[in-house]
Design a protein that fits this description.
Helices cover 52% and strands 8% of the residues. The protein is mainly α and 165 residues long.
């Protein structure tokens, strides 16, 4: 969903794993990838919150906002949960980040909602939003032109659900 770019490489932390030099994913990229894992059988939200608690001051918040792009609500939801889970730590999230995201929400609320019936829940969980697509007539946000998958890709992805049980 998000490509590795030159900034990913530049911000990667050098380390060693089993005696082999490696580049560890930048913290912003780990947060980004884990933020979208919200399956019934696996939810990485706690990992996101633990990373925020442990490394909030090390995060390049501008980069993180850029990486989330149009999916900024997903980041905002995790930041809201952070304040709930760790009320005494909430000041570790920069005020300007919360103001920026809150401003986006306010601006969005002042515009008419989209007219197309799309469900973005499938980006978070490949199973839990299938009724929205299959029964209730919503378009799957994973599929072209909104997403990066073909209908055939989503069929394979959906068929693999039973294999993971």
């Amino acid at each position: 969903m998000y490509p590795i770019d030159h900034v990913w490489i530049d911000r990667a932390e050098k380390g060693e794993l089993f005696g082999v030099p490696v580049l560890f994913a930048p913290i912003e990229e780990v947060i980004l990838s884990k933020s979208f894992v919200a399956h019934r059988e696996r939810f990485d939200g706690a990992d996101v919150l633990h990373i925020l608690r442990a490394r909030a001051e090390a995060i390049d918040w501008k980069r993180l906002l850029e990486r989330f792009g149009g999916y900024w609500r997903v980041l905002f939801s995790h930041l809201m949960l952070f304040g709930f889970v760790y009320p005494g730590e909430r000041s570790r999230i920069p005020d300007w980040v919360l103001h920026e995201l809150g401003g986006r929400l306010e601006a969005e609320r002042r515009t008419p909602p989209p007219t197309d019936r799309v469900c973005q829940g499938t980006i978070l969980s490949r199973q839990q939003y299938l009724p929205d697509i299959e029964r209730w007539g919503y378009h799957d946000a994973r599929v072209f032109p909104r997403g990066h998958m073909s209908p055939e890709d989503t069929a394979v992805w959906t068929a693999a659900i039973d294999d993971d049980d």
